[in-house]
Amino acid sequence: MDQKQITAAVIGIGTELMRGKMDDTNATFLCRWLLERGIRVTVRANVGDTLEDIGAAFKRAAACDLVIATGGLGPTDDDLTREALAAHLGRPLVFDEALWQSIEALFLKRWKTVPESNKRQALTMAGAEALPNRFGTAPGMWCEADGRYFVLLPGPPPENQPMVELALREKLVQSGLLAGELALRVIRCYGIGESALADMLQPIAFATEVGYYFSQAGYVELHFSRFDNGDGAGRAAVEADEKKARALLAAAGVFFTGNEELAKLLLDELVARGHSIAFAESITGGAMAAELVKNPGASQALAGGIVAYSNKMKQTLLDVSPETISDSGAVSEETVREMTFGLRRATGASVCVSVSGIAGPDGGSEAKPVGLTHCGFLIGERYWHKMETFVGGRSRIIARTITFAFGEVLQALAHNDAKGSSGNASGATQKDVRKA
Ligand code: ATP
Ligand code: MG
């Protein structure tokens, strides 16, 4: 029998959140943390620092097994979270002398006196337990009420996150709330949109929860997830669904990988095949090389790059002829071809990649719209060219150019070897069906 999945509410308390002064990063952290541990967050809310609003948020969370509130545990009058929980559960707040002494000691270590207002932080609710705060004065709170659990955590993330790891985790384990995990498999699909992907996978009856998440860098993450209570059934189900999806995607010629950065996969592939790579970058301004350099061991494959943004640099550093630029333009098939061969002469790298495009927002025309990008690829003696028009703002166009170029090289390298087989170790497949 499946153990029931635990549900949780995450409530960020603070008037500054409601005024848009800051984002609720505590909730982002907690939602991820709980998800990974198989707890389903069904309510996520923000409320200001009033007894009424906090009380209403607790009511909204009435169906959840676990209610976690962050913020409003400080010493000032506008910190009301403790009072609101006590009122919600109909329990009194009591002054905890031992807790006060530990807060006092903490203060006296750093300052000469303790403000009277800090006494509020030693208020605890009848039947509740304090969660120690290693990095601040406000203790957290844990309590059980009618088989449900309530947790109060301090607002500042440097206090909140260690408290989750060091104190809350233990309470959850003791209470049997961490009795499973979320089994999750991710496939990254390139050159295809969410809706086209959903249509393509429609014939498969999946046994797990399927999610489609678009990344700004120009790919769609396909998530298969299911709660696994430790018996392995959830894990087996997501693996089976992933396998079915991979087979269908491969048959349809979609380029996909596992849940790994493309730059890392490319680097591994280059190193495994003994290649060196160089970039001639116009539109990306050096970002392609920088993306590869983020990975340790980049020196094993990266020869270098030339940022040739101006026409003059394209001519002097990459030998592009002035006539090519005046006849065809800097963003053209002809120019990237000369950039690519110039790059080979300059670097001797076995894999040479050139990009030239219009990142916008200005500079587009009807014939050459913003987003138009030409890419030249030279691997060994094989040269080819691709042209794409990416949509989005400037940074997204640049990011998608990098994703596209890296994907193109990765597929070409895998293709060299795979010849007729349907993929390589990273799950890359060959046929080019880019629509982006
Ligand atoms: P303190 O004892 O520091 O007053 P507190 O528990 O009362 O802690 P708040 O007063 O609500 O917490 O918030 C203190 C600070 O913590 C905020 O100014 C903000 O910088 C940060 N903070 C609070 N809530 C959040 C949140 N949900 N996400 C990110 N940061 C937060
Ligand atoms: Mg405060």
List keywords for this structure.
436 residues; binds adenosine-5'-triphosphate; 17 strands; alpha/beta; 6-stranded mixed sheet; elongated; binds magnesium ion
Secondary structure: elements and pairs:
Elements: E1 7-13, H1 15-18, H2 25-36, E2 40-47, H3 51-60, E3 66-70, H4 81-89, E4 93-95, H5 97-110, E5 123-125, E6 129-131, E7 140-145, E8 148-153, H6 157-174, E9 181-190, H7 194-201, E10 209-215, E11 219-228, H8 233-252, E12 255-257, H9 262-272, E13 277-281, H10 287-293, E14 302-307, H11 311-318, H12 322-328, H13 333-347, E15 351-357, E16 372-379, E17 382-389, H14 394-418
Parallel strand pairs: 1-2, 1-3, 3-8, 13-14, 13-15
Antiparallel strand pairs: 4-5, 6-7, 7-8, 9-11, 9-12, 10-11, 15-16, 16-17
Bound molecules: adenosine-5'-triphosphate (ATP) and magnesium ion (MG).
Magnesium ion is lined by residues 74, 76, 79.
What can you tell me about this protein's structure?
It is a single chain. 39% of the residues lie in helices and 24% in strands. The protein is elongated, with a radius of gyration of 28 Å. The protein has 14 helices and 17 strands. It is of the alpha/beta class and 436 residues long. Adenosine-5'-triphosphate (ATP) binds at residues 12, 14, 17, 22, 24-26, 70-74, 79, 136, 138, 154-157.
